[in-house]
Amino acid sequence: MVKLKYLLFVVCTALLFSCKSVPDDLIMFHDLNKGRNFTGTLVNKENSRTIILPGNVLRIIVSSGNVMDAKTYDQFNLLPVTPSTPTASSLTGVSGEMEFQTYTVDENGEIEFPKFGKIKATGLTHFELEALLQEKLKPHLSDPIVSVSITQNYVNVLGEVATPGLIEIENRHNYSILDAIAEAGGITSIGDRKRIKLIREENGRLESVVLDLTSSDVFSSPYYYLKQNDIVVVDMNSSRQKDAQYGTSDNYKLSVISTIVGALSSTLTIIFLLSDRLK
């Protein structure tokens, strides 16, 4: 009888300690909770710069810091630009009602720019293209101002996030997978943080990688920063996949049974300990 009592005690204790409150795969960067120190760690800078690619649509607006250049810089825009008031133009160099000027980068990576003809744009950031055009405009404008935006520049976040869909990143540098997930509203409670799929097109070829957001190693990954047209997919976690496979009702029954067994185990353990003390 005594042996049976202690056998039941061991079984109950094992059941109790086999239950975890929060699995590690539900906690982002859980290795930091275990004492990992980030001091001096370098973030992988690959793809941190947003560069212009063939097929991009660029919004380019030419203006000047000198109001006297108003009639001159019109010829460098696709559509005429007329300042609404002298005051507005003197402050900004452009009209508040000015229409956007858009250029599509061709397959050779070039745009057709007024007066200058073909200009190579691919491989440049928007800052670099602005500087290039400003240099070309200096013989024609006393104080050229060029604004370049990479429009229709997206990443796509799908699956178990609050608001899946396209996210426009335009000119933003250092745009990471964490930024994209945050803009998509975050991973849902049933999303798998341990296996985030990233699909990318490189030179006409597709590649894919799986990123683990429960580990801080993601910061040193060459895929930490996203490129335009990247696809991020957050699948259901393993528990939710089992729900889908076996049915939510079956999983609920198992959960109830587990809770009852845990409660009984706790009760029996207390009873056995008290009975030993009374003896």
Account of the protein in words:
This protein is an alpha+beta fold. The protein folds into 2 domains: 176 residues, Outer membrane lipoprotein wza domain like (Outer membrane lipoprotein wza fold like, Roll), CATH 3.10.560.10; 95 residues, wza like domain (wza like fold, 2-Layer Sandwich), CATH 3.30.1950. 32% of the residues lie in helices and 22% in strands. It is built from 8 helices and 10 strands. It has a 5-stranded mixed sheet. A 3-stranded antiparallel sheet has the order 2-1-5, covered by helices on one side. The longest helix is centred in the last third of the chain and has 31 residues. The chain starts with a helix and ends with a helix.
Secondary structure layout:
Layout: H1 2-17, H2 30-33, E1 57-64, H3 70-73, H4 86-92, E2 102-104, E3 110-113, E4 117-120, H5 126-137, E5 144-151, E6 154-159, E7 165-168, H6 177-183, E8 191-202, E9 205-211, E10 231-236, H7 238-246, H8 248-278
Parallel strand pairs: 6-10
Antiparallel strand pairs: 1-2, 1-5, 3-4, 6-7, 8-9, 8-10
Helix pairs in contact: 1-8, 7-8
Which features characterize this protein?
279 residues, alpha+beta, Outer membrane lipoprotein wza fold like, wza like fold, 2 domains, five-stranded mixed beta sheet, three-stranded antiparallel beta sheet, 8 helices, 10 strands, elongated
Structure summarized in a few sentences:
With 279 residues, the protein is an alpha+beta fold. It is built from eight helices and ten strands.
